[in-house]
């Protein structure tokens, strides 16, 4: 799969410098250009799997968190599954619906390409750190370029990102991002996001049943 134009300025050669703006634009534009894919996020003993599609209207996604639960969302609606079934989020609804709406809004924002763009832009810059054998979500390994943030930097909610590494075969179709952050009162933690199935339309039949056909 070729990369969008914003990725053409990035050269994957060991020691090459990449500005945060260049990398942010490339990664976010590739997500918009691919329009669909799969993510698996591992953090603090939990695993969240996300199938997503971007249409002209916005983001559609179905997530499954272990342990936890499932969330389904469209650009304007969202549902969280509990023991009794799916609960649609509604800020003006009862406490359960209002809580669901809040959770859906947070998830929708974190999955949008603009969130990825904003996170990468906070870094002071990046350097290509050579190729390494890296484990993927399915347990296999492959050789990928490491694009590493040059120094720790402040991020969201008073957190400090102490290390951020983007693993990719070529500029654009990222395979994995590792983020290690420190938060006051919570300590240090590392999230690993695996990206796969770029441009492949996932099975969102259950979301379609909830919300109607994706346009």
TrEMBL record:
Name of the protein: Uncharacterized protein
Domain of life: Bacteria
Originating organism: Cellulomonas persica
């Amino acid at each position: 799969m070729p990369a969008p134009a914003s990725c053409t300025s990035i050269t994957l050669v060991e020691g090459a410098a990449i500005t945060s703006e260049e990398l942010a634009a490339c990664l976010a534009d590739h997500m918009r250009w691919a329009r669909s894919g799969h993510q698996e996020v591992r953090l603090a003993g939990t695993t969240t799997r996300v199938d997503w599609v971007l249409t002209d209207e916005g983001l559609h996604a179905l997530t499954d968190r272990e342990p936890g639960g499932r969330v389904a969302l469209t650009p304007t609606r969202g549902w969280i599954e509990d023991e009794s079934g799916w609960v649609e989020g509604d800020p003006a609804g009862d406490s359960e619906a209002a809580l669901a709406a809040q959770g859906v809004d947070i998830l929708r924002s974190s999955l949008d390409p603009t969130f990825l763009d904003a996170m990468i832009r906070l870094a002071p810059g990046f350097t290509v750190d050579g190729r390494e054998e890296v484990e993927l979500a399915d347990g296999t390994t492959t050789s990928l370029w490491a694009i590493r943030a040059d120094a720790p930097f402040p991020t969201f909610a008073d957190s400090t990102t102490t290390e951020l590494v983007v693993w990719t075969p070529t500029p654009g179709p990222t395979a994995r991002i590792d983020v290690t952050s420190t938060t006051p009162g919570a300590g240090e933690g590392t999230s690993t996001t695996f990206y796969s199935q770029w441009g492949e339309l996932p099975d969102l039949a259950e979301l379609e049943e909830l919300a109607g056909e994706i346009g």
